[in-house]
Write a structure and sequence with these properties.
The chain has 696 residues and is of the alpha/beta class. It has 19 helices and 34 strands. The strands form 7 sheets. An 8-stranded mixed beta sheet has the order 26-25-24-23-22-32-33-34. A 7-stranded mixed beta sheet has the order 3-1-2-4-7-6-5. A hairpin with a 2-residue loop joins strand 9 and strand 10. Helix 7 packs across helix 8 and helix 11 packs parallel to helix 19.
Length: 696
């Protein structure tokens, strides 16, 4: 949209009706802006011309050329790494927002956000349930995908549209409420909840779009470069820090797509609402067929609460002060209703075979009578229950140190023998820097008889890039478990012990099948099959130039612990599943990492410890990411550090809100619960999907 002749301002009401109650925002602007807003909110919000007899609107938005006149206006400047600063004029007493500037795409976009945000806050204040996830109508059933960043919501929704013929309701901000939907427009007669969408753009990771395009949905490539949302043309983080460099091109890390654009490229219609028939919590586990596990009500309630939004939205924080009172009792009732009336599933799927997962969901949710007859049946397998507050300890038993959000039940008398720590994101930051306070906390653990161990996904070569005289590393045991459990490095003498290796002859097999650009780690060293692979690997891992030698590779190397394939799809090769390795997609530089089948931090650590101790190991484990899942779940005490992802949090007993060193100071006094029975690796290290980004 470009500026033109000055227009007289007009007014238009925007409304959303949820569970029989209508939220309303009146907008004042030029006729072109109002027409564009009306187009952008459809079909999620309705419009009408306000009449002279209408009562005062509960909220207002103005899109103006100049700052508003009058008293009581305040200015709010909101910053984002993805777009220009937003400058809003607000009048809290009237719940009035003014977006000021010449007529443009940006002014219209900011007015649209203000309308949507005010509508959502009105709905939230009435006590409707806001969850972090999306909703589609798939095979005639309303299926919600819930999860935090990188859980696979957007990928699952795209697959449902493209391969399942689904109808789109919401991608990232679905609202659940009583009834209000049926084919004839009346309320649901069977007690189901209804999910409602709002006019919000869909943020999609470019690598997810490319994966789907490679699977045959080539029209998706147009969304990467042709999106109409103005943020796609702004030199923000998505075009700088998060940009992808592929085949000589620089692509944005993610793109913002209007719902109408999504409908056009997929050929599927948009819906303002749909009944809720099933809830799916997705996750990724590459190289395996999809699995849909029914959750029992207790576990479903826990997973649901992890994804409940504490506010109408996390942006424009000043709006929370405009709606200080909300109906929490009604919201809690909706949570109970959902768990009682709606089947919930855990989905694991391969990022590069999303269609199989979509078909599985359609099969399970489409079974006649299945939704009700098995609604309260417990899921198969062992369920580990958690609670939202700590159980009062038995007299004389120290409690888990606060603050935290979850804890397991009363611990028996015992003491920890080891504490296992992930490295990146747990002990050090992205730059490899360690907080100074951690060294004293780790030395205190040693003094209490608890041996601190390092268990990391780093390879031997990338681990050696750290500053090894750091006091934190010096406080740890000299044996370091690397390669997600496949290798142990003794820092005292530099020896490398391989616990699990790739099949002998795998490098030769790759070369014979035309895979030329890869780097293999052999007993701690690196060898590249080509100069191109060596250069790409050093850049991706921040290694010194020339530090990766180029072949020849040993044809039958016995100690190849991992192979990074920089070009080519190994899973397209014939019979690769029979070769005895797992494949993981590295989204950072679109490589594939080949590791020994069953690679897992927990299995590797326990294999190492079991061979060196006769007395039982009582383990506390600390981590922040998906590959720490088994380690946390299989330990006597699993702790997710601040900033942990949803996989680590779900598998932990304690989720920290305080710095790690403060928690460690109290750990020697904590008596751990009995470790869960079963093998160390529970399959809980599944890789999550590309995730979400800022608002549309």
């Amino acid at each position: 949209m470009t500026g033109g002749e000055r227009q007289e301002n007009a007014a238009l009401s925007f409304t959303v009706t949820v569970a029989g109650s209508t939220a309303r925002v009146d907008v004042v602007s030029g006729t072109r802006t109002l027409a564009e807003l009306a187009r952008l909110v459809a079909p999620f919000a309705g419009t009408a011309r306000p009449g002279p007899a209408d009562p005062a609107p509960p909220a207002r938005v103005s899109a103006l050329d100049h700052p508003p006149a009058g008293q009581g206006w305040e200015q709010a400047v909101l910053t984002s790494a993805y777009e220009p600063d937003r400058v809003l004029w607000t009048r809290p007493a009237e719940r009035h927002i003014a977006v000021v500037g010449p007529e443009s795409d940006w002014r219209t976009q900011q007015a649209l956000r203000a309308v949507r945000n005010l509508l959502r806050w009105q709905v939230y204040a009435r006590g409707e349930l806001f969850v972090h996830g999306g909703l589609v109508r798939l095979g005639g059933k309303g299926v919600a995908f819930l999860g935090r960043k990188k859980s696979g919501k957007s990928s699952s929704i795209l697959s449902a549209l493209l391969t399942g013929g689904a109808e789109f309701v919401s991608n990232d901000d679905v609202v659940l409420a009583d009834g209000g939907w049926s084919p004839d427009g009346g309320p649901n007669a069977d007690g189901r909840l209804t999910g409602y969408g709002f006019p919000r753009s869909v943020n999609l990771r470019t690598d997810a779009l490319l994966a789907l395009a490679d699977a045959g949905h080539t029209a998706l490539r147009g969304l990467i470069t042709n999106g109409a949302h103005p943020v796609n043309r702004f030199q923000g983080r998505h075009l700088t820090e998060e940009a992808l460099r592929l085949d000589g091109r620089t692509l944005p890390g993610s793109v913002w797509v209007r719902p109408t654009e999504l409908a056009a490229v997929t050929g599927r219609p948009l819906r303002a609402s749909a009944p809720l028939d099933a809830v799916v919590f997705p996750g990724f586990r590459d190289g395996l067929p999809p699995r849909l596990r029914r959750l029992d009500p207790e576990e479903a309630a826990g997973r649901l609460r992890e994804n409940i939004e504490p506010h109408a939205l996390k942006y424009d924080e000043f709006l929370a002060g405009w709606y200080p009172v909300t109906d929490e009792e009604r919201r809690e009732g909706l949570v109970r209703r959902l768990v009682e009336s709606t089947p919930c599933f855990e989905l694991t799927q391969d990022m590069h075979d999303l269609a199989a997962a979509t078909r599985l969901i359609m099969t399970e949710t489409g079974r006649d009578g299945a939704d009700t007859s098995s609604r309260h049946r417990p899921a198969s397998g062992t369920t580990r229950f958690r609670q939202s507050a700590p159980t009062p300890p038995v007299t004389g038993t120290p409690a888990v140190p606060p603050p935290f959000t979850e804890a397991r039940a009363v611990p028996p008398p015992a003491s920890f023998t080891h504490a296992a720590f992930d490295l990146d994101g747990t002990l050090c930051d992205e730059a490899g820097k360690f907080p100074g306070e951690l060294a004293d906390a780790l030395h205190a653990l040693r003094a209490a008889g608890i041996r601190p161990l390092l268990v990391t996904g780093r390879s031997v070569s990338t681990f050696r890039t750290l500053t090894h005289d750091d006091p934190v590393l010096e406080a740890l045991e000299p044996a370091v478990v690397l390669n997600d459990g496949n290798t142990v490095l003794d820092r005292n003498d530099g020896t490398v012990t391989v616990l699990r290796a790739l099949p002998p002859g795998l490098p030769r097999w790759l070369a014979e099948h035309g895979v030329e650009d890869f780097v293999a780690e052999t007993g701690g060293g690196l060898v590249a099959a080509s100069r191109k692979a060596a250069a790409g690997y050093t850049i991706a891992h921040g290694l010194p130039r020339g530090s990766v030698p180029v072949g020849p590779l040993p044809a039958d190397a016995e100690a190849v612990t991992q192979i990074a394939v920089l070009r080519g799809d190994v899973r397209a090769l014939p019979h690769w599943q029979d070769m005895g390795f797992d494949v993981t997609r590295l989204t950072a530089f679109r490589a594939q990492l080949l590791t020994p089948a069953g690679t897992c931090k927990a299995a590797g650590l326990h294999s190492w410890l079991d061979g060196r101790r006769s007395d039982p190991v009582v383990l506390a484990a600390f981590g922040d990411a998906y590959n720490d899942g088994c380690l946390l779940r299989g330990a006597a005490l699993g702790v997710a550090v601040p900033g942990a992802d949803s996989v680590a949090r779900r598998n932990a007993d304690v989720i920290l809100e305080q710095p790690l060193h403060e928690y460690l100071a109290a750990l020697p006094a904590v008596r751990p619960p009995t470790a869960p029975e079963g093998p160390p690796c529970r399959g809980d290290h599944a890789r999550p999907s590309p995730g979400d980004a800022p608002p549309g």
